[in-house]
Design goal:
200 residues, single chain, Arc Repressor Mutant, subunit A, Tetracycline Repressor, domain 2
Length: 200
């Protein structure tokens, strides 16, 4: 692989992500992605077999971003539960800002269209979140139980809350009296099994 090829691939992913943000998956075509990236119309096919492979790469990049954000939070924050809260808040804000990316990630992927890159990224992201939940459980800041199921519940709640806010069904001044990030903070507070100080 020549030094320019990774740059070209990144430029193609940037262009695809821009089209996705503007018009959803139907707006993404390899020809338009190539045009926006400033390469020949055949260049995208040197990196991606088809549109689905391109979209899978976009989804994988977003999942790696989520995983990196949690890893960075774990380095910064003094406890896994605080790192988890920070990372989940970031994920829901990202999903509200870029709803089509979230819909792509959590869309229907099958063995026929999920690339190895996407599968690996999803697995790594899920494993890190599950391990963070497990560590918080061991500290007594999350309830006992299957950490993978609890991580899945947190992911589902985050995804649903972000979708509700994106659709206008959540607002600090209106419906729900909260944004999506606020609901996640509430949920983590409710799940914390430690006794609360009197008056809370």
């Amino acid at each position: 692989m020549t030094p320019r090829q990774p740059q070209t691939r990144d430029a193609l992913l940037d262009a695809a992500q821009e089209l996705l943000d503007q018009g959803g998956q139907s707006a993404v075509t390899l020809r338009e992605v190539g045009r926006r990236a400033g390469v020949s119309h055949n260049a995208p096919y040197k990196h991606f077999a088809d549109k689905q492979a391109l979209l899978a790469a976009v989804a994988a990049r977003e999942l790696r971003r989520d995983g990196a954000a949690l890893a960075e939070a774990l380095e910064r924050e003094p406890s896994p539960e605080r790192a988890l809260a920070e990372a989940l808040r970031g994920q829901v804000r990202q999903a509200v800002a870029f709803p089509e990316r979230a819909r792509l990630i959590y869309g229907r992927w099958t063995t026929a269209n999920a690339t190895e890159e996407l599968i690996d990224a999803a697995h790594a992201s899920s494993e890190l979140m599950t391990e963070t939940v497990r560590t918080a459980q061991q500290r007594g800041t999350l309830p006992e139980g299957d950490p993978e199921r609890l991580a899945a519940m947190l992911r589902a709640a985050s995804r649903g809350a972000a979708e509700l806010e994106s659709a206008g069904h959540l607002s600090p001044e209106g419906k729900g009296r909260s944004d999506a990030a606020g609901l996640i903070d509430d949920l983590l507070g409710y799940l914390d099994p430690r006794p609360r100080p009197a008056g809370d």
